């Protein structure tokens, strides 16, 4: 799967013209709230909220299209602790995707809306007094955002993202609402 994704990205990049490569790199930091839902077959479902953050970076080929990579942490909490026994859970993901952005003005400044999506590798880690374990899975992610570009090099946005993962009888999803700051260079 990893080789297929890398090949698809290489083919997409090789098809771009030289004029399209006159874009700019970007770095983005987002912080917000994730609602994490877990469903275990035969047991049931539960959910919890936690502060989430995401670090993203990539390349804008023009003012409307970019590729991005990201690391996101959705959940990191102690699930149980009686002083002797404990269970801690952590949910994170790395991913690669595309961003499509449209400004409300022809100057590529001011208000905008954006869509993003791609493939992420989610990781659920459990640390407990009985031992440690983790599970990973590759799933699509998607998101939508609206914001304001103050200049060609800086903008802010409000974003909603959906990530999911699974392993064995467990299915997990994270729905995140975050505020993002983006610097372009």
Write the layout of secondary structure elements.
Elements: H1 2-14, E1 24-40, E2 44-62, E3 65-81, E4 86-103, E5 110-128, E6 131-151, E7 154-167, E8 170-184
Descriptive account of the structure:
This protein is mainly beta. The protein has a single domain, classed as Porin (Beta Barrel), CATH 2.40.160. Helices cover 7% and strands 76% of the residues. It is built from one helix and eight strands; from the N terminus they run αββββββββ. It has an eight-stranded antiparallel beta barrel. A hairpin with a 3-residue loop joins β1 and β2. The longest helix has 13 residues. About 4% of the residues have low confidence.
Mean of residue pLDDT values: 89
Tell how many strands the DSSP assignment holds.
8
* Integer tally of domains: 1
Largest sheet: 8 strands, antiparallel, barrel
Bin the strand percentage. over 45%
Helix content: under 10%
CATH architecture: Beta Barrel
Sheet/helix structural class? mainly beta
CATH class: Mainly Beta
Low-confidence stretches: 15-21
Rg, Cα atoms, Å? 19 Å
CA-to-CA gap between the ends?
32 Å
């Amino acid at each position: 799967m990893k080789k297929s994704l890398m090949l698809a990205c290489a083919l997409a990049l090789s098809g771009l013209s030289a004029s399209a490569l006159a874009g700019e790199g970007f770095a983005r930091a987002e912080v917000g709230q994730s609602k994490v839902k877990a469903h275990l077959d035969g047991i049931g479902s539960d959910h919890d909220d936690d502060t989430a953050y995401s670090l993203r970076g990539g390349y804008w080929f023009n003012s409307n299209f970019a590729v991005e990579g990201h690391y996101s942490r959705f959940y990191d909490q102690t699930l149980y602790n009686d002083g002797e026994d404990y269970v801690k859970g952590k949910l994170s993901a790395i991913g690669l995707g595309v961003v499509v952005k449209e400004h409300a003005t022809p100057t590529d400044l001011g208000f905008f809306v954006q869509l993003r999506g791609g493939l992420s590798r989610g990781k659920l880690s459990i640390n407990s007094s009985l031992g440690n374990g983790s599970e990973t899975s590759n799933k699509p992610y998607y998101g939508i955002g609206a914001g304001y570009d103050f200049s060609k090099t800086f903008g802010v946005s409000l974003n909603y993202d959906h990530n999911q993962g699974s392993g064995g009888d467990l299915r997990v999803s994270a729905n995140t609402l975050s505020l993002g700051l983006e610097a372009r260079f």
